[in-house]
Amino acid sequence: MTDLLKIDGLTIQTGGKSLVADLSLSIAGGERLGLIGESGSGKSLTALAAIGLLPDALKASGSVLLDGKQVVGARDRDLVPLRGTTAATVFQEPLTALDPLVKIGRQVGEAVKRRAKRDGRATDKASIAKEVLALLDQVALPDPQRIIDAWPHEISGGQRQRAAIAMALACKPKLLIADEPTTALDVTTQAEILALLARLVRERDMALLFISHDLPVVAGAVDRVVVMQHGRIVESGPVSDVFRQPHHPYTQSLVAAARAFDDALEIAG
Amino acid sequence: MSDTATITASPQGKKRRSWTFTIGAAIVGLHLLIGLMTLIWTPFDPAAMSGGRLEGASLTHLAGTDRLGRDLFSLIMIGSRIALTVGCGAIVIGGLIGITIGLLAAFASRTLDDILAAGLDILIAFPTLLLAMLIVAASDGASLETAIVAIGVANSAIVARLTRILTKRVLSMDYITAARISGTSWIGVVWIHILPNIWPTLLVNLALQFGLAVIAEASLSYLGLGAPPPNASWGRLLQEAQATVYSAPLGAIAPGIALVSLVIGINLLADGLRDLADPTRRSRR
């Protein structure tokens, strides 16, 4: 099977300074990959470059093949049809990921409608509304009838993130990019969202690119990890290997920090 | 933003807002009603000498008469219609041009954006009235239409700059990226996300521009560059009353009150409109 996303020698530069240098990774269909690194290490930029949405000021070079199509240097017009069907994104901050002036139902509905149009299915109000309801149900939103009619500011952060996930799912992507989807949430909500993502990825056989700075969060969500520091990959491999025997000093310090936190919890308990 | 803050803030906030909105709507509505009424009826023929020259206020002539013996109240009533026509026309023109250029600048490449932004700054540096006078002077002659176009074009620069900034702010939000990722075209993004999000602020600005357009029209007419007779503009009434302002002050005071009341009414309405256009400011149902 060919890789869904294949990044080869990706370099992102701005004003002569490289933010991401010679990065290569690949995700096969249905695979779950974690991208770990501190803030500013180029994780999110890599994700944006993967779907060709880098800001104008940043120059990307190298090769990004998304579902077999070259993204680097492609015209925006050619990428539009590729984006919805191939990759969708869940963002870190659920408050800015939803338009504050569009009701949840319509917001999810727009994504459903676009997908239905592409597939040549009916786009009448009733069938869209039915699918929106089904999606909100799938992301385990309580009382979906009420949520459909709610403005984003009327529901909680966790519910907003679920709505954002529903929007991403509406596109029926082959690859779900989750850019720190749990960072802005409290710990219990975090666990719920992670469980939800894991279930959805399994059920829908999606590939997952999970971006985070939080080691324990990534460990439970993915099969393989790539550790980034200062725009470079410093270590990669299956989750269990990397966390059991980290080779690079940066990964070692990450693992040690997570252990120390666990120990502190045990002592406190 | 915590939920408790929203709940405690809204009852008082809502009370204050609806008060300004009601007063503003009442004043503007009254002017609108009077303006429409003049299409079919005025107390006296505004062009005819219906009384003595420079009469004071009386039950027959509510605002007295001007130096030609015309009924001032009838003229002021027609002035409402002229002012509202110019105001509406100017914000439609200013809004269409301004929003289009603003959106264009926000989406344009860096170079084009810089050029447009610099151009707008230069236009804004010109006083609106001076710009409008230039446009009127460059056209065939003063008429109601040239006044509308001149004020509209002069106001469009401010609308354009505001639209550009607001759009850029919305464009930096995650939901735009999310919409782009799910394959929404730029036109879809503008229609679904950008216009509704910039609308509340734009609406308030347009309403304020409306008030400024009414003042600009009065100023142009005062200078003889507005709607020519027989259109009775408040600005021209003020200008005509200037010579006799000491002997018959009512001739200047009455159109002045009409002008000020409309502008205040519009500004109050603008304040109330913003809350109606923005669901996050509305109280929970």
Summarize this, please?
With 269 residues, chain A is an alpha/beta fold. Chain A is 46% helix and 25% strand.
Task: Write a structural description.
The complex is a heterodimer of chains A (269) and B (285). Chain A has 269 residues and is an alpha/beta fold. In chain A, 46% of the residues lie in helices and 25% in strands. Chain A has a single domain (3-268), classed as Rossmann fold, CATH 3.40.50.300. In chain A, the strands form two sheets. A six-stranded mixed beta sheet of chain A has the order 6-7-8-3-9-10, with helices on both faces. In chain A, strands 2-1-4-5 form a four-stranded antiparallel beta sheet, covered by helices on one side. In chain A, a hairpin with a 2-residue loop joins strand 9 (224-229) and strand 10. In chain A, helix 4 (104-119) crosses helix 5 (125-138), helix 4 (104-119) runs parallel beside helix 7 and helix 5 (125-138) packs across helix 7. The longest helix of chain A has 20 residues, at 249-268. The chains are: A alpha/beta (269), B mainly alpha (285).
Features:
heterodimer, A: 269 residues, alpha/beta, Rossmann fold, six-stranded mixed sheet, four-stranded antiparallel sheet, 11 helices, 10 strands, 46% helix, globular, B: 285 residues, mainly alpha, MetI-like fold, 9 helices, elongated, disordered N terminus
